[in-house]
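Anyone have tokens for Membrane protein YfhO? Sequence:
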Amino acid sequence: MAAVASASSVSSAPWWRRALPHVLAVLFFVLLACVYFSPIVFDGKTLAQHDITQFQGGAHEAQEYAKAMGKEALWTNSMFSGMPTYLISLHFPGDWSGYLQKIMTLGLPAVVANLFLALLCGYILLVALGVRPLVAVAGAVALGFSSYNLAILAAGHNTKSIALAYAPLVLGGVLVAYRRDKWLGAALFAVGLTLNVRANHLQITYYLMLLVVIFGIIELVAAARAGRLPEFLKRTALLGLGAALAVGVSFGRLYTTLEYSKYSNRGRTELKSPAPGQASATNPDDESTGVDRDYAFQYSYGVGETITLLIPNFYGGASAMPLGTDSNLAKAGLPHEYLTGMPTYWGQQSYTAGPVYMGAVVCFLFILGLFVVEKRTRYWLLAGTILSILLAWGKNFETFNYLIFDILPGYNKFRAVSMALVIAQLAMPILGALALSRVLRPHPKPQPLVPADAQQHPALAKAAGAAKVPMSGEAAALLPKVLYAGAITAGLCVLAYLASFSFDFAAPIDNELTKQGFTPELLGALRADRADLLRGDVWRGLLFIGAALAVLYFYLKGRLEAVPAAAIMVLLVLVDLWGVDKRYLGTDKFQRETIAEAFQPSPADQMILQDPGLSYRVLNMQNPFNEAQTSYFHKSIGGYHGAKLRRYQDLIERQISNNNQQVLNMLNTRYLITGDPKQPVQRNPGALGNAWFVSEVKTVNSPDEEMTALNTLNPATEAVVDASKFPQQKAATYDITGATIKLTGYSPDELKYSYQSPRNGMVVFSEIYYADGWQAFLDGKPVPHLRADYVLRAMPVPAGSHTIEFRFEPNSYSVGNGVSLASSIALLLVLVGAGVYASRRKQTADAPVAAAPLA
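Reply: yep, here.
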């Protein structure tokens, strides 16, 4: 009765009183995000994000065109000699979800908004599950401040960060739909998935959907056992409609990405012969369209590294970590200026920006959740966590992961399988928050026994008043489980500490250090520092576990009230994670230099920019295929992007990397940036220009033969065509005497040429061939064109004086944008409908389906 009365009093309270805890929580999240990123908010600095800087370089041409022309550039020539802007910088006007994101981020600056979103969405998830606000804050902090969230922001993986931030909304919608209100749950799911997909990091969405599928399987089994299959199917159908709506809003982005994936290096090469340095050729019977297995598993989490979920510095932290003046290396005599970035990491990965750390307190609560949270929820989150760890091991657990890579639909499109730990990053804090909610919910408190004649005997009354109040039966049942969880988590720390004395702390990089002059004494000191980092974090973890255990112990013993207990747990989770996060995203990562200031033209850039030509290309000979500084100013042969065209990647690996000058000539490489201060720029006299007539067309019968032909091809006079792809083109010779062609108009996705030729001929263009979008016109009439020289466009042309136009007009963009617009309108109607429904729904309108509460 007391619980009913309490619920009644809460529901009858004024709306502002009910809203106040949530408003305070949101303000708290704003404060946390602003304080963490105070150099941005208060000092006007920016976060030095490598990938964002490179993005700005690659996107500059398209962005400037959009500003000047008021329409999107669907193609850019600023990277890799030309590629679609689908995965670089492209706006879809039909997608209205951006307005929703602006509302949710409250106008906060980028990066600050990312952290705020992660906190806010985590809080919404937990409140939707019935968790009280203060406990929901603790869970939101655990979700938002997981170390991976901050490490990826330091690297510039903003889209990945946003996709992760919205993941709790998706899970919240699923849980509410199945366990509480199907209509509100489906609406929340549609909104969350819309925003998650909009972030355009499909690998995160894929992992999120794996967690949803696991939940669905467990719910299906429970529904079948309880005879509730029809109701389960209804709710599943509603979620299916929500998913369709979410995909529809981002359909333009997804459709163009899907189309591009067929041609990108996320698919397999058509070549069967091995590239230089490869051990073997592609299996000719392999019809997979995914990435190469070795490429996908390049970043695999070590089996032993899984302990970093609990002990962050178990393997030394990041690849480069600062060491203090009291470190063993400093005492061994290493100059202090070298201590700012030492290779403390000794795990198996070739590089890491930092470990995935869930938090000692979160790990303790996760273990506790395995004891106290209702079975269906606990099994779901435990299964997700285990799957996450197994997938992240990648090549370190070949038997399982190679099978999954081959049979799981779409999984072979992704790389860096260590990212699968984001599933655990979601599951562990959620289960931990539910466990905390279970322990801190009100328990009936028995009164001390007072003898009936206590009033007549003051001494008895005094003794009774001083008597210890016994624990309730529920609290007494929970206390051993809390102690078990604490013992297990602390025991793992102790075992890690004891095991550390058997480690040698040697790393693969140590051999390189020895070659660079590291003495045996310095190497021994470095390894001693690695040991100290591990053992220091063990003691740190034990401290936080002990503190969290003490809070729950004293609460269950009745010596601490629920509100202060929850507040202390919020503080413990925050301090624990904040301290580790600052190791990988600290004040040293901020700078006063803005993106615009980062792109100041070098003397070489200034010299090249004096050329008034409409279009030509530049090769920066200093790491050309991993930088986009050149792309900011010029049309670059190189660039920086994880999904370049597959055929262009083949060209890089087999021709450009082998210094085939003729291939550079056919790509119209007019300038080379040398990096030599004495001669920063070299002009290439052999560059063939924007287009030219060839006197001979050779045909081959496979992509391998076409690539091999480039070894000796003279592209100024010859072109090679793969007849297996373009059977209409036959070998031919032409008299090109008196034939000329010139580029007369340039924009990123529209090129105009004029030519004169006494005879029919074949023109080759120094432009990348892309079948799905580029349309050719002769004197305004559509004409076909073909691919030549493995990557370039070519066109047979009639004699006379004519104009040629190429326009990039992909149907996928126009169709996709239309679907996005229709879906955006539908989503808006769903939001309005959900708001009306929520305001009118009675408490008993849709009874929960779950047989037991979540926690």
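The first helix runs from residue 2 to 11.
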